[in-house]
Write a structure and sequence with these properties.
Layout: H1 3-23, H2 25-41, H3 47-73, H4 87-106, H5 115-125, H6 130-143, H7 145-155, H8 160-238, H9 240-266, H10 273-286, E1 290-295, H11 297-300, H12 306-326, E2 331-339, E3 342-349, H13 363-373, E4 377-383, E5 386-394, E6 419-421, H14 427-432
Parallel strand pairs: 1-2
Antiparallel strand pairs: 1-6, 2-3, 3-5, 4-5
GO cellular component, one term: membrane
GO molecular function: phosphorelay sensor kinase activity; protein dimerization activity
Region (Disordered): 392-433
Length: 433
């Protein structure tokens, strides 16, 4: 996720918050100012009712706007809200609502008296967790018919139905239009937080992927360099020419390691199965391991995606590194073919340790997760002194571009005929193949 997307998301959230502010606190102030304010300015209303109503209206508008604005700044309300409403402001709003209800009710204005109490009920509900919020609203709706109904009965004005039912409907409607925008705001904040966490997770996953690729490259090359350095040390007195050749190979490997590391940093390097099979042939022969490569001609021309070839290349590299690092192998076998709609790679060796360290590391497990995400699988088995790694990925549908044929030391062979790298007493000669 780029910075532009994050900036646009933040701008969108700011716009939604502004809209929600005008919808909830703004609507509350507007409703009070229009309906109650018009009643206060009405010359037909007695002065003894208008003066305290004007003072109560001022307090009610100020307290409601502040309380709802503070609610917008809080985290979404859950079963355990982080903060409750300020007690002083809530008491002021409730007291003003009582005044704004009692005065119109005394004058039998059944449509105006429930306005302020309904807004206070909705305001308090915004601070409550869902189950308590529902109880508050249900209780307010149930009690709302009583004051007006009793006043109508006492006055015997024939407006009992209106006096009892309208306040209940007004309370329910006010709660609906107040809590709806706040629910949308809370949901948007949760989604925004999830988006930010997703972006942070993507960055961390990319760092882990980069670290894994860097480990694969440097760990493999350094293992080979160490192996060739040990060989050169043994040959320096017995065969200086061969030792010099090994030292040149070490220098080449070090240069390749530096180049590959730079390529990974720049995001250019993509391991392929063909390259890794070629490299494994040379490296295993240099380690005096009888490496037998069996590559199905159909698999060599298989139409695999770059991603699939990259993953199989990583498996080949990890398996080769494990052979060198965690076994005393004298023989290794690599088999690659297309079967059952899957590209299948199998790498096995003898001389495995009794408790292979490869099983304790994260290399194979991390690769198994990546292959599973790509629709394939990676398994490994340990039987006696034999260790086998088997990978499978779906072959591409027809029409995609396949990789180039395997050439050189990994030239194509039939399914039953294996190209062999015979065991050689001369590791330097094997490395030159």
């Amino acid at each position: 996720m780029g910075d532009g997307a994050i900036d646009r998301g933040a701008a969108g959230l700011t716009s939604l918050r502004r809209y929600t502010w005008w919808t909830v606190p703004g609507m509350t102030a507007g409703v009070l100012a229009v309906f109650v304010g018009a009643w206060v300015l009405d010359g037909d209303v007695p002065l003894w009712a208008r003066v305290p109503a004007a003072a109560a209206l001022t307090v009610e508008v100020g307290a409601s706007v502040v309380l709802l604005s503070r609610r917008l700044a809080l985290l979404p309300v859950t079963d355990a809200p982080p903060d409750g409403p300020p007690a002083g402001l809530l008491i002021a709003a409730a007291g003003a609502a009582v005044v704004l209800a009692a005065l119109p009710l005394a004058l039998r204005d059944y449509g105006l008296w429930p306005v302020a109490p309904a807004l206070v009920v909705a305001l308090l509900a915004t601070y409550l967790p869902p189950h308590r919020r529902r109880l508050l609203i249900a209780g307010a709706v149930a009690l709302a018919p009583l004051p007006g109904g009793l006043a109508s009965l006492v006055a015997e004005d024939g407006e009992l139905a209106y006096a009892a039912l309208f306040p209940a409907g007004l309370v329910a409607f006010t709660a609906w239009v107040t809590l709806g925008p706040l629910w949308a705001w809370d949901t948007a904040r949760r989604l925004d937080e999830a988006r930010r966490l997703e972006a942070e997770l993507a960055v961390k996953e990319e760092r882990l992927r980069f670290a894994a690729d860097l480990h694969d490259i440097q760990g493999h090359h350094l293992q080979v360099i160490a192996l060739k350095g040990e060989l050169a040390a043994r040959l320096v007195e017995l065969d200086p020419a061969r030792a010099a050749a090994e030292l040149k190979e070490i220098r080449r490997l070090a240069a390749d390691t530096l180049s590959d590391t730079r390529a990974v940093v720049q995001g250019y390097r993509r391991t392929t199965l063909e390259d890794e099979i070629t490299n494994a042939t040379r490296v295993l022969a240099a380690a005096d391991i009888d490496a037998r490569m069996a590559v199905d001609p159909g698999a060599a021309a298989a139409r695999l995606t770059d991603s699939a070839r990259h993953l199989l290349g990583l498996v080949m590299r990890e398996a080769t590194t494990n052979v060198l690092r965690h076994s005393r192998a004298g023989r290794a076998e690599v088999d690659y073919r297309i079967a059952g709609g899957f590209a299948r790679l199998r790498v096995s060796n003898d001389g495995a340790e009794e408790h292979p360290a490869a099983l304790e590391g994260t290399g194979l497990r991390a690769l198994a997760e990546r292959l599973e995400a790509a629709g394939g699988e990676l398994t490994w088995t340990h039987d006696g002194d034999r260790f086998e790694v088997a990978a499978a990925l779906p072959a591409n549908p027809p029409g995609s571009t396949g990789p180039p044929g395997l050439t050189g030391s990994m030239g194509p062979t039939g399914p039953t005929e294996a190209q062999e790298s015979p065991q050689s007493p001369n590791p330097a000669d094997g490395a030159a193949r």
